[in-house]
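Q: Please design a sequence for this.
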C-alpha cells in the first residue's frame, strides 16, 4: 500500500510541476502580448494602423515596414530626447551606486557616534513621497540656477534613490563574515582598499540589483522630468507626451518612440539578469 501511495505521490508531483510550468508559460505570454503588439504597431504604417489592429499582420505580414523608425530617427527632437534621457539616467544610476555603497559600508562596519540613529533617519526617508519635495526643491533649484538643467534632474534622482540604496546595501554588507574583513586588515589592507578589493566584489549581486532598479526608475520617469528637465531638450518620456499633445493620435510616431524607450531598459535588465537573480536570492536567504 505504501508503494502505491509513493507512486501516486510521484505522479501527483509530476502533474503539479507540469501544470505550474504551463501556467507560467501562459502568464509569460500574456505579459509579453502588449510588448509584441507595440512592436508590431511600430512596424505598420499609419494607414494600416488606422485600418485595423496590429493583429492584421498575421493576415498580411508584408505590411511590416521600418519606415516609421527611419523617420523617427531622422527627427532631431526624438534622438535628442534619447540622448538627454541617457545623460540623466547614467549619472543618476552611477552616483547612487557609488554613494550608496560607501554609506552602506560605513553603516555596516564603521563605528562612529550616532550611527544607528542616523541609519534610522535614512530608513525613515524611504516613506517620503517624491511629490512632497517638488515645490521646495523647485524653489531651491531656481535660487541656485539648477532649474531646467540636467544636473538638477540628476541630483533629484540621486537624492531620492539614496535612502533605498543605503538600506539595501547596508543590510547586504552586514552579512559579510567579520573574519574575512579582519583577515584583510591583518594583511595590511586599509578601509578604502578593503572596501574596493573585498566588499565591492562580494556585493556585486546587490549592486547589480540596485543598479537595475535605479536605471528603470530614472529612465521611465516622467513626473520629475516634466518639472525639472530642460523643456527645449526633454527626456524621451516628456518628448513622447508632447507628441501626443501636439499631433493627437499619431500612433506611427508614438509606437516606435515608445518601443525604443522600452528596449533600452529591457537590454539593461537582460544584460544583468544573472546578477539580479543572485542578489534577490541572496537577500531572500539572508
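A: Design:
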Amino acid at each position: 500500500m505504501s508503494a502505491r501511495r509513493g507512486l501516486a505521490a510521484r505522479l501527483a508531483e509530476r502533474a503539479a510541476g507540469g501544470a505550474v510550468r504551463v501556467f507560467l508559460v501562459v502568464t509569460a505570454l500574456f505579459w509579453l502580448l502588449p510588448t509584441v503588439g507595440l512592436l508590431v504597431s511600430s512596424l505598420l504604417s499609419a494607414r494600416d494602423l488606422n485600418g485595423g489592429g496590429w493583429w492584421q499582420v498575421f493576415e498580411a505580414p508584408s505590411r511590416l515596414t521600418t519606415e516609421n523608425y527611419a523617420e523617427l530617427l531622422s527627427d532631431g527632437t526624438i534622438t535628442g530626447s534619447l540622448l538627454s534621457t541617457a545623460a540623466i539616467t547614467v549619472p543618476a544610476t552611477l552616483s547612487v551606486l557609488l554613494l550608496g555603497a560607501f554609506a552602506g559600508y560605513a553603516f555596516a562596519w564603521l563605528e562612529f557616534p550616532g550611527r544607528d540613529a542616523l541609519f534610522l533617519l535614512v530608513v525613515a526617508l524611504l516613506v517620503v513621497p517624491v511629490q512632497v519635495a517638488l515645490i521646495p526643491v523647485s524653489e531651491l533649484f531656481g535660487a541656485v540656477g539648477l532649474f531646467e538643467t540636467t544636473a538638477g534632474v540628476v541630483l533629484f534622482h540621486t537624492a531620492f534613490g539614496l535612502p533605498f540604496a543605503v538600506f539595501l546595501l547596508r543590510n547586504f554588507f552586514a552579512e559579510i563574515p567579520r573574519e574575512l574583513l579582519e583577515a584583510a586588515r591583518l594583511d595590511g589592507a586599509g578601509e578604502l582598499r578593503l572596501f574596493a578589493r573585498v566588499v565591492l566584489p562580494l556585493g556585486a549581486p546587490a549592486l547589480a540589483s540596485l543598479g537595475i532598479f535605479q536605471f528603470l526608475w530614472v529612465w521611465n520617469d516622467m513626473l520629475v522630468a516634466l518639472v525639472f528637465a530642460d523643456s527645449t531638450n526633454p527626456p524621451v518620456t516628456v518628448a513622447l507626451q508632447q507628441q501626443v499633445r501636439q499631433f493627437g493620435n499619431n500612433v506611427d510616431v508614438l509606437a516606435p518612440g515608445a518601443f525604443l524607450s522600452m528596449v533600452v531598459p529591457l537590454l539593461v535588465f537582460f544584460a544583468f539578469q544573472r546578477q539580479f537573480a543572485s542578489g534577490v536570492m541572496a537577500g531572500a536567504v539572508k
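Q: Thanks. Anything notable?
A: The chain is about 80% helix and 0% strand. The mean pLDDT is 82.
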